[in-house]
Amino acid sequence: MLEFIHRVMAWHESRDRGASAVEYALILGVIVAIAAAAFAVIGGRINVLLFNACRAIGGGDAC
Questions:
Q1: Cα angle value 9/12/13 (rounded, 5°)
Q2: Helix/strand/coil percent split, the chain, to 5
């Protein structure tokens, strides 16, 4: 009986590790999606700010 309990516990632990890997992958996917969206929004604003700063200091055609 004790051997059976050990086998069940070992099976459960191995199964739990797989679920953790899937959960980490999902969390990583969400973080990457949020970072990509933030970069898309902020990236355009930074480009406009740099262009305006270049024109303000008289960059001319360099801007």
A1: 85
A2: 90, 0, 10
Show Cβ contacts of residue 63 under 8 Å, excluding neighbours closer than 6 positions. Answer: 51, 54, 55
Write the single-letter amino acid at 46.
Answer: I
Pick from 12-16, 30-34, 36-40 the range whose average pLDDT is largest. 30-34
Contacts of 51 (CB under 8 A, 6+ apart): 63
pLDDT confidence tier of residue 32, bands split at 50, 70 and 90? very high
For 20, 22, 23, 63, the CA distances from 27, given in Å and listed in that order, are: 10, 9, 6, 40
Q: What's the predicted TM-score (pTM) here?
A: 0.49
Domain boundaries, the chain: 21-58
